[in-house]
Amino acid sequence: MSSAIIKPNGIGAAAPRKEDYRFITGNGHYTDDINRPGQAYASFVRSPHAHATIDAIDFTDALAAPGVLAVLTGKDVAADGLGGLICGWLVHSKDGSPMKTGAHPILALSHVRYVGDHVAVVIAETAAQAKDAAELVNVSYGELPSVTAVAEARNPAAPQVHPEAPRNTCFEWELGDKAATEAAFKTAARIISLDIANNRLIPNAMEPRAAIGEYDKGTGIYTLHTTSQNPHVARLVLSAFVGVAPENKLRVIAPDVGGGFGSKIFIYSEETVCVWASKKAGRPVKWVADRSESFVSDAHGRDHQTHAELALDANGKMLALRVKTIANLGAYLQLFSASVPTYLYATLLSGQYDLPAIYCEVDGVLTHTAPVDAYRGAGRPEATYVVERLVETAAREIGMDPAEFRRRNFIRKFPHQTPVIMAYDVGDYEASLNEACRLIDYANFPVRKREAEARGMRRGIGFSAYIEACGIAPSAAVGSLGAGVGLWESAEVRVNPTGSVEVLTGAHSHGQGHETTFAQLVSDRLGIPIENVEIVHGDTDKVQFGMGTYGSRSGAVGMSAIQLALDKIITKARKIAAHVLEAGEGDIVFEDGRFTVAGTDRGMAFAELALQAYMGHKFPTSEIEPGLKETSFYDPTNFTFPAGCHIAEVEIDPGTGTVRVVKFVAVDDFGNIINPMIVEGQVHGGVAQGIGQALLENAVYDPQTGQLLSGSFMDYCMPRADDLPSFDVGVTVTPAPSNPLGVKGCGEAGAIGSPPAIINAITDALGIRDIAMPVTPERAWRAANGL
Amino acid sequence: MYQFEYHRPKSLDEVTALLARCENPKILAGGMTLLATMKQRLAAPSDLIDLQDIAGMTGISVDAKNVAIGAMTPHHDVATSRDVAGAIPALAFLAGRIGDPLVRHRGTIGGSIANNDPSADYPSACLALGATIVTNVREIAADDYFRGMFETALKENEIITRIIFPIPQRAAYQKFPNPASRYAMVGVFVVKGANGVRVAVTGAGPGVFRMTAMEAALAKNFTSAALEGIAAPAEEMLQDMHASSEYRAALIGVMAKRAVAAMLA
User: Fold this and answer.
1) Closest approach of chain B CAs to the CA of A175, in angstroms?
2) Using a CB-CB distance cutoff of 8 angstroms, which residues of chain A are in contact with residue B260?
C-alpha cells in the first residue's frame, strides 16, 4: 500500500478534516441539538447511598407536581418483562466455573449498589420540571455497609455486593503456563518485584451522554437518538437481551458524538429507559446527563492492584514474568467489563520482549462503586504500566542502561508467538527506541540534568516501550476467548450516477476524523475529489450492520472493509468499461480516476463510467447488473500490534513537589498512515490522557460512606494545556500484514504508552523505586524530601 | 437550578428596598460561586439581585496613596489595569491568576471578599495590604473584616461598594494552585509598607490569616533566609484529598520565601 507519490487528499496526505467546519462553527448535530415534536424530559432518581435496600418508593407528590407525565420504577420495568443490562463477554475462573455476578436491572428493584444507581425516572414537560419532581420522589432506604476498595472487598467480613458472588469475587482467572514460569523463576539469577496500583479514572467525554427515545404508534417503530460509539450493538442488545423492542422495530441513531473514550460503547440504563418510557408516556423522551451525573454513572476505567515479578538470568536476559492482579469491576458488569482486565490485559504482558514464560492471575472483584469497563486503551495501559515499570526498575537494579536492557530483550524475529495467546506479526522495536532516543537527545541528558540541578530542580528521564493489540479482531479468535459477538466490520460503497460516492460504514466517528480519512481512501482509490465522497455512519436504518468504533479498530477493520468493497467496485467498473470502450477487460487500465484502453488514447473518467453503469445502454445487463454498489464484510486475520517508544523528561521542584513534564517524545509504529495530521492529533490526545492519569486524575470514593469524593472538576483534575509540554512525535513504519491497508491503529497508543514513561522519569529524578499515580504535588514533595 | 426571580436594580436604594421585600434574596456580584451552587441545587434563593447596573460600583481609581477598586470590578480589569500595575503590581498579578478567563471577566472583587472562600485569592491581598472595605453603611478595616471560613463582618443586607488598598513600598503574591480547581491551595501575600511587614496566607487555613512570626522576622531582616525554620502550625491547617495539613503548612514557608525573593529581585 505504500504509494510512492502522495495524491492531494489521498492516502498519506495531511488532508484538513472535513468535519471541522461544522464543529468549529457550531453547526454539528449532537443528540442535545435534536428535538422531536412533543418531546418530554426524563430525570433520574439516583441512589444517595453506596449500598441500601429499597424499602418503599412513594411518588405521590412527584406525580402531582407541575408538568409531570409519569413516574416509573423498577416494578414497572419488571411488569413489562424487560431484561437487565448484560455483559457481552463470558470469562471462566481457573476451576472452570463461569464468572459470578448478580442481575443488572435497568431500574433498581430491591437494592441499590453504588452512589448514582438508578432508582426511578420522572417524565415531565420540561427538564426543570422533571428535576424538581425527581426531588419529590420519596425513597425509603435501609442503609447497609459498603465496600469500595479491592483490597477489602474479598475480606470474608466485607459487605456483599451480590449474593451470587461470594466474597465479592466475580472470577479468579489465569493465563499462561504456571509450571514453566515457576521453573524459570527457580533458575533466576535476579528477581525484581513491584507492587503497582493502576488508579481509577473517570472518562469525561466533552459531550455528556444523552438520549431521545421515540415511539411511532402507527408503525410500532421505536427510534433512539443516542451518544453511542456503536449504534448497531446498542440495537442488538436492546432488542435481543433487554427486549425493549424487536430489532426490526428499533432504529438507533448516533449523530455527532463529542468523544467517547470507551464510555459510550456500553448500553446504559438511561438510554434504555428513554426508549421504553417513550411508549409508556406516549411522548418522545429526552435525557441529557449533567456533568455531575456523568461522574457517578458513566463507566469508570482501570482500578487495578498488582504484584508483579520479573525473573532475569545473570546476563540481564528476561526469563519469566509472574503477575497477580486484583481488578475492581464495580457494582455491576457492563458490556465488556469481564474482558478488559483479562483478555485485553494479560495477553499484552509480554510487551516487546522475548519472554519465554508468563503466568498471570486476575481476580475480578465487585465493589459498591460505578461499573468499571473499557476506557481508552482498556487493559493495555494497565499491562504496559506493569511491564514497563518493572522493566525500568529491573534495568536500574542490575545497573544497566534502560535502553540497552530493552535492546537486549527485544523480540527480533517475526512472527513471534508470546506465551500469552498473541502472535505478533511484525515490528521493529529497536527502530522506534533509537528514533525516540535521537529525538530526545538521550546522550546529552546528563548535561540537562546538571543544568536543572543548578536551578534547584530534580530532572529525570523515563522510557516506555509499549505494545498493544488493536483492530479487534478476528471473530473466531475473540469468540474462542468468550466474546458474545464477532468483531468484523462492514462497508457499503454506493456510486451515484454522477460519480460521487457514499460510503456506509459500521464504524462510528466521535472524534477520530473518519469522515476525512475514510474519504481519503476512496478519493485515492477511485481518483475522485475528496469533496465527492460522503461518509455515512451512525444510523441503523442507513448502515445495515456494524460493530462500531473502539479498540483502535476502525482503520484496520473498518477501512479494510471499504477497501474490499472498492475492489469489487473497480472490478465491476472495469467490466463495464471494457464494453463501453469496446476493448478486452484485460486491456482496461484504471489509473488516476480514468479507465483507458492500454496503449490507446481511448478512455473515460470515473464519473462517465458511473453514468454508464446506471444507464445500462452499452453493456449486456443479462451478464452485468446495472448500477454500481458493493458491500463487504471484512474479518481480519489477526489483531494488529502498534508499538513504539515514549520517553519523558520531568523536572520536579523539591520545595513544592510540582512535577513538570519538560520533554515528551513519542515514536510510534502504526503501520501505514492515512493522514499524518490526524494520527498526530490522536497521539497528542492520548498522551494528554496518559499524563492525566500519571499526574492528575484520580477517582476517589470515601471508604466509609462510598460517596464519590472526586465528583466534579473542582476535585477531579483533568489535564489542561498548561499541564502539558509540546509533544515531539515521530513515526517508524512496519506495515501490518493482517489487513489490506497495512494499517495498525493509533487511537489509544498515547494513553497506553505514556503513564509508565512519566512515572519512570519521576522515580529517576527522585532516585526512588516507586511512587503511586497520580503523582500529586504532595506525593512528589514527600518523596523528594524523604517524608 | 430552582426557579427564582431576577432583578437588576439601578441604585443601592433599590437594592435595599428589594432586600427588604423579597423572601429569601441573594445578591449577585458576578456569581462565580453562587451560580454554580444554585446549578447543583445546593442554594435556592427566591430572588437574585444583580448589582452590575449600579452606577459607581465598577472601576479603578489610583492616587498617590491608595488604589480604590469598585466592588463590581471584574478580576480581568484589575489584572490588566496599568494604574494597578504601576501602584501595586502584586495586586494585578494576583487578579490575573484567579480562575480562568471566563471567571476573570464575570467574577468581581466585591463578590470574592463578600463570599470569603478560604481558598480565594483576594482576601490575602486585603489583609496583607491593610485594605479598607467600604460598604453602603460604613468602612471596615480588613483586620476586622475576615472572620473565618465564609464568614465576614458584613451585617445582613450590608453591601460592599469599594475596596481601598494603601500603596505599599513593595509587595508580592505567590500562589500554589490546587491542580484541579486552581483555587489557592496556599497563597502568600507579603507586603512591606508604612505599617511594616505583613504576611497574609490564604488557602491553607479555615480562612485568611496573618503569619505574625514571619512578619517579625522579616521586620528585622527582610530576606528569604530570615524565614528559615518559621513554620505554620500544621494542626490548624486544612486537609482534603488534594493536600494534607502538613503539606499545606510546608508550602506556606516555601511560598513566603519565594514572595520575599521576588520582592528583592
Assistant:
1) 37
2) none
